[in-house]
């Protein structure tokens, strides 16, 4: 059934053809949709996901447990709809139960924030949380979410080596809150692991974003190009 779900999402027309031509005994699309509706989808950290990660890390060696926490934010088009199953609105700000000040917000979401785990030793990437916000997430809230994400991953057996993001203003504010600084007289590219004080979590600005920033700087400043 799970394979049928994935196939129908990937190619609805291909799924329909195989079923109508009796090439494979596939369930009807209504049955597939009923199974989709049974899956609870929401913002915040999913406890069931971390239970599965605990089982996965239990079979890995120490190096395979190491990884990076990545997060990025994108702009979304505002929209509002009614969830007839739960009689609630979809499209509003939603941080799950993580940010107290954002609970029961009536603002339309126009930004999406995604947290993801990237293994260093395996070809394994896993989104661990998603949040919907009105405007970019503030630096202080980002810092809180990062700390919680690290603690949750560490509890499952994973080991966070570093955190990667782009150089947006809110991210730089978050770096300052965590004590990270790029200044010559106060350079610090890590902060203490909140789960294990004996280890450090290093902070990286992703390289593609740095290259894009340099390109834009050279394009807008002719004096730099001449020099």
TrEMBL record:
<dbReference type="Pfam" id="PF21787">
    <property type="entry name" value="TNP-like_RNaseH_N"/>
</dbReference>
<dbReference type="InterPro" id="IPR048365">
    <property type="entry name" value="TNP-like_RNaseH_N"/>
</dbReference>
<protein>
    <recommendedName>
        <fullName>Transposable element P transposase-like RNase H domain-containing protein</fullName>
    </recommendedName>
</protein>
<feature type="domain" description="Transposable element P transposase-like RNase H">
    <location>
        <begin position="43"/>
        <end position="179"/>
    </location>
</feature>
């Amino acid at each position: 059934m799970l394979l049928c779900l994935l196939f129908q999402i990937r190619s609805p027309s291909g799924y329909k053809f195989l079923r109508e031509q009796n090439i494979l005994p596939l369930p009807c699309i209504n049955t597939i949709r009923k199974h989709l509706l049974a899956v609870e989808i929401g913002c915040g950290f999913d406890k069931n996901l971390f239970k599965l990660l605990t089982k996965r890390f239990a079979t890995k060696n120490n190096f395979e447990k190491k990884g990076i926490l990545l997060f990025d934010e994108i702009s979304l088009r505002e929209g509002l709809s009614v969830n007839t199953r739960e009689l609630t609105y979809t499209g509003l700000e939603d941080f799950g139960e993580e940010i107290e000040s954002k609970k029961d917000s009536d603002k339309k979401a126009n930004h999406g924030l995604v947290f993801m785990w990237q293994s260093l030793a395996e070809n394994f990437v896993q989104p661990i949380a998603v949040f919907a916000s009105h405007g970019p997430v503030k630096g202080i809230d980002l810092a809180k979410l990062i700390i919680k994400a690290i603690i949750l991953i560490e509890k499952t057996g994973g080991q966070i080596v570093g955190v990667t993001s782009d150089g947006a203003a809110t991210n730089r504010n978050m770096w300052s809150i965590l004590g990270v600084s790029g200044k010559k007289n106060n350079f610090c590219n890590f902060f203490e692991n909140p789960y294990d004080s004996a280890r450090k979590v290093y902070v990286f600005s992703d390289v593609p974003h740095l290259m894009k920033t340099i390109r834009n700087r050279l394009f807008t400043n002719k004096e730099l190009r001449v020099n």
